[in-house]
Each structure stands twice: as structure tokens, then as C-alpha cells.
Amino acid sequence: MLKCLLFHLQAFLYSLKHSIPLVAYCEEQCLTLFEHPFVDLLHTLHHEAKVKVVPSVEDLLGYSSIQKLLFFDNEEEDPFVLRQHWSKLSEGKARVIKVHSNTIEIVPLNASKGGGIRILLDHLGITEDSDLDAVGDYTRWLSNERSN
């Protein structure tokens, strides 16, 4: 628990220091420390919950359950540098996943979108033999799950 808290603290302070947008996914909420056009796209383009701006790092750390962190590269940053930095810091604690050309997710080691989709499909009784063509980019996430 303390390791997670320290890791999250590092991420939030890095976000502020470098003015790189960071969104924390906490249960049903998306939280950030400052407004940014990239953050707004989560709601307007990707239909995520509207991101709430939290006034301080201390307030953000007060949220008990952070499932993942999402960093947006700004135009000045080399996306490889951000990913490399957080891959090194998170080694053995979390996985860093490049989601799009300008975003990385930091998720717990045991997190898997493919695994989550599989659980949902099993719950709904949908098997690989079903006439289901796709669930989002389901095939890609299953491929990622099999390769990990």
C-alpha cells in the first residue's frame, strides 16, 4: 500500500513539474491536477467520465482506489522518453503500456484488458464459437494477454 502511495505521489509530482497531463482512474471517477485539452478529449472523444480537477496532490492521494494512471505526452516531449522513464520507475510494481501515439497507461502488474473482456464474455455466456465479430479492439487485447 505504501509503495503504491509513493509511486502515485511520484507520478503526480512529475505531472506538475513537467506540465504533462496525468489522469488517475479511481473507481467511477477520472481525476487530474490541472485542465488540459488532451484531458478534455477523454470525455468528448472517448466518452469517458468527465475528468474532475482536484486542487492538490494531497487531495488526489486521498482517493483510496487508483486503478490506473494515464499520461498524455505534450508536444514538447519525446513520447519514448516518457515511456522509458516510467517503465524504469515502475519495474516490478506496474506495467507501462503505450495506448496511442501520445498516451501511456500505468496499470497494476496483474491487470489485463483482454482478461477483463474474457471475464465479461464468460459472464454473458458468449464463447469463441459465438457469432460475435468484435468487442472494441478485443482481438488486440487478447493477443496482448497471450503474449504476456
Automatic annotation (TrEMBL):
<keyword id="KW-0732">Signal</keyword>
<feature type="signal peptide">
    <location>
        <begin position="1"/>
        <end position="19"/>
    </location>
</feature>
<dbReference type="GO" id="GO:0006364">
    <property type="term" value="P:rRNA processing"/>
</dbReference>
<dbReference type="GO" id="GO:0004222">
    <property type="term" value="F:metalloendopeptidase activity"/>
</dbReference>
<dbReference type="InterPro" id="IPR002036">
    <property type="entry name" value="YbeY"/>
</dbReference>
<dbReference type="Pfam" id="PF08282">
    <property type="entry name" value="Hydrolase_3"/>
</dbReference>
<protein>
    <submittedName>
        <fullName>Uncharacterized protein</fullName>
    </submittedName>
</protein>
